[in-house]
Structures are given as C-alpha cells and as structure tokens.
Amino acid sequence: MVVAVGVCRWHHRRALLLAMMRIDERWPVPRWVVRTGLVGAAIGLAAVIWRSWSVTSLARGGLCEVVNGAPFTTFPYPSQAFVLTAIAAYVVGHISSRYVVEVRPELVANLGEDKFDRIGPVLVAKSIATGFLLIATILNLYEARAFAIGNWPITYYVWCATAASPILALLATALVSFLIGRWLWIPR
Amino acid sequence: MLRAARAPHAGKVGLALIAVILLAVAGTENLGLISFISAGFLAFAGLTGTLFLLCLYDLVVSVFELRYGPGAGRPDRFRIASDVVQEYVRWLSPLGFVVGIIVGHYFWQ
To answer: Best residue in A5, A87, A133 to probe B by mutation, most B CBs within 10 Å?
Structure first.
C-alpha cells in the first residue's frame, strides 16, 4: 500500500513516464506520434482481447466437438511437431539475439549500469517483469481451479483453436517461441 | 521488515518457499484432495508466484531508492544485483522453457 501510494505521487510517476517517453532518443519521431501510437496500440489490444473473448466464448459448440465435457479434437500433425517447432524457434530467437549483440555491441549494458543507469527504465523493466509473473501465476491458478471444479480450462480453448486452424497454430507457436528466445534468453 | 532484509536472504527464502509449496502440493495430491493435473498447475503457480514475490521485493527496494535517494538507507544491503538477475535469466530462461514446454505437452495430452 505504501509503495502504491508512493508510485502514485506525481514526481514518482514522472520518472516512469519519462522513461517510457524517452524512446525518441532512439527513434527520431515526434513525441505526439509516439503517444498517439501508444494510445492506438492500447485501444487495438483491448479490441483484439474483446474480440478473442467473444469468439472463444462460443468455442464449446462452435470450433470443435465436445465429448464428456472436453473437446474431442484430431490434429493433422503429431503433437510433438508443436513441441519441436517451439524449441527450434526459441533457439533461433536466441541466435538472432546473439547476432545483434555481435553486430551492435554498443546496445549491450547491464540494467542499472552504464546507459541504463537511470532509475526510470530500471523501474519500468522491473514493473513489466513483476506484472508478467503475476499474470503467469494467475493463469496457472485459474487452470488448476478449472480442472478441479470442472470448468473449461484455457487448455481446452487452445485445443479447439488448434483444431480449427493447425497451420496458424503452428505459426503462432513458432512466432511466440521466437520472441521469447530473442527477448528472454539473453546472450552473454 | 525491510531493514532486517538482505538480498541474499531473499533468494534463500524464495528457494525455501518453493520447496514448501512443492511439498504441500505433492502431499495434497497424494492424499487425493486434488487431481494430478491440478497439482501440476499449482506447482507451476508456486514457482511463478515465488518469482513474482522476489520481483516485487526488488521493485519495492527500487521504489524506496527513488523515494529516499540512492544514498539513503544503505540500499546496497537490500538490492538484488543486476548480474544476479542476468545469470538467472541466462540459465533459467532456456531451462524453464524447454522443461516447461515438455512438461506442458505432457499435461496437454
């Protein structure tokens, strides 16, 4: 509570906002374009989430057959194909990150040191990591509770989506894994 | 409480918390109170939840630095060094991804 009140004070929020707005140091675009883009992206993300929620809420009767309360799906590929694709894309993402580090070593610095020593970017990075882990925890708890009480877990919706379009599911698997490997498996 | 805390101890507390959660989940599943699948997701929730608490601790220390200045309150005593975080990310990220996706595939099936 004390932390929340502290962050909500203007001179604390200012450091956070400045850290997010200072991307114009790297991207020479007008600040109003950046702000408009961020607002537009937020609205677009909300629209996509709302649309996805609307579509998946119909998944029980629409996208796949339901047998004994669970989706009955058949996939054209073995499920191991998704696992191997994800791992391969993850490794490729890491290799691409290593390539960037070798080509542009001036971009590399430890968080909190050198060019990243300002407290604003440090707080932004830590807030994103904390929020990501909070969401992951909530999703895992939701899955555990859904399986315990017999509700549909997110896993079943993913099954239906994969059955509806295996190619797109495979591409999405590769894309997400690539980004995770690029951003979260940092090179030495 | 923050004055009594030290960053190395925060990591040890995190490891102890994960061990307690895993033992509790395994015991509960063994007694038949929850299903095997729910126990698996609860174990992952325990892992991510503990990492969340550690990140929250680090964030709180950083906000206190912002509030009172880097020289006040001996922040180095509480700070989790950036190289510690980077070592965790460097090794835990590939390990967690590969193991997680294989175990997740098992639950998927």
So the answer is: A133
